[in-house]
Amino acid sequence: MKIHTFGRFALLIGGCWLMIGQVTALRVGHLVDPDKGTVANNQIVLIENGKYSAIGPNLAIPAGAEVVDLSQHWVTQGLVDAHNHLALTYKMVPENNSYYLTTVLDSTAIRAIQAVSNGITMMSAGFTVVRDLGNNGNYADSALRIAIEQGWVPGPTMINSGIIIGGFGGQFSPVPEREGLIYPEYLNADTPDEIVKAVRKNIIYGAKVIKICVDCKTYGYTVEEMKLFISEAGKSGLKVAGHVQTNAGALRAIEAGIWSIEHSGALDDRTHKLMAQKGMWRVGTETPLTEYHTGMTPAAKARYQKQEEGMKNAYANKVNMAFSTDADYYIPGMTRGQVVIDFLKSWKDAGIPDKEILKIMTVNGYLVSDIYDKRGPIAVGMPADLIAVRENPLEKIDSLRDVRYVMKDGIFFKRDGTMTPEKFFHSGPTPESAWRIR
């Protein structure tokens, strides 16, 4: 049933009316600025209409405001996972996962429902932004993003890619009788016309970033082909993320001027230096070495050692690094949010200082997501997204394993360790998503 112009306007006004006049005052004991690595003590943070309206040490609290005491907490920006797959959830078995089988057996509908659950647990863990890069069935990622924006389900701000675009076969190896099984996990694009069509298809179906397979096959994309991806995506203000598996592919992607290189196994000192020169993003997806993530085989330990050496080299070369996980699996007894926050181990083992890890998980995450001018900083006029923990994350990054408060768009999703997601349901469409209502 169509809702005509007046109905759309009424819904929009109704959604906004819920926020008008609501003022929340936070008594913050320690306000952390992860960009500068500093702490401002005893601050008052006022939030109105979902945004920060005033921040300072001696502010008057308006009459009737809801006052929340965070005087014993450290408050900072919401966290960002720059590479996740919310609508893919297979059982993690070290050295032998069932990813391909999952894509065949699970419908997009059930994967969208899994994505809602995964998004909720990501929020509970403090991740208010997720850059979701494909493997989401037939645009379950777009469906989830729109549902979150319209207030039907709670969840993080999503920067989603739609279907991954690659040369024939994507990351799969289909047989002639069943070559169609690669869709909808991958879009085949082997010619300039197909590249343009694939980018436009993803954009019209809700992508906010374009992801390509740079070198998933021996006939990977050339520099000129990647430049075409970049220019076509750029027409709509989108960036291009490149899944990279080989050093040669990485060099081509760097020459083409890609926005971010996803995964770090093929990167070395030479590529890191080139990336640093061009300001490119390294979205490394560094899995921690544990019994439940990777197993503890000699091969797993050797890969982990190489991974840590790569992280150290990237940090030494001042490459733009993002906290990213490639989380697309479940571990019994752990939520997706718990799986993701466990990746702190990799960064600590690489010797990255705690304050730098916090900046990478916040500021860098917003920058690689290309939204730092829209949300992220705790500053007047910005959307009120924040988390609160009981110890200083600049000095003890593991304090992020126990996020006590989570706020998104001025609404508490979690209070004193308890989720309160019901406040997000049916909150009404945001201005940027209202047009989606039919």
Briefly, what is this?
By secondary structure, the chain is α/β, with parallel strands linked by helices. The chain has helices at residues 5-17, 99-105, 108-124, 140-149, 192-204, 223-234, 247-256, 269-278, 298-316, 336-341, 344-349, 354-361, 363-368; strands spanning 23-33, 38-48, 51-56, 66-76, 79-84, 90-91, 127-132, 157-160, 164-166, 186-188, 210-213, 240-243, 260-262, 281-283, 320-322, 329-330, 386-389, 405-408, 411-415, 418-419.
Largest sheet: 8 strands, mixed
Classify the secondary structure makeup into a structural class.
alpha/beta
Write the CATH fold name of the largest domain: TIM Barrel
Low-confidence segments, given as residue ranges, are: 1-19, 431-438
Number of strands: 20
Q: What strand order characterises the main sheet? A: 3-2-1-4-17-18-19-20
CATH class of the largest domain: Alpha Beta
- Beta fraction: 15-25%
N- to C-terminal distance: 7 Å
The dominant shape is globular
By DSSP (H or I, 4+ residues per run), the number of helices equals 13
| Corresponding CATH architecture of the largest domain | Alpha-Beta Barrel
Tally the structural domains: 2
Q: Mean pLDDT score, rounded?
A: 92
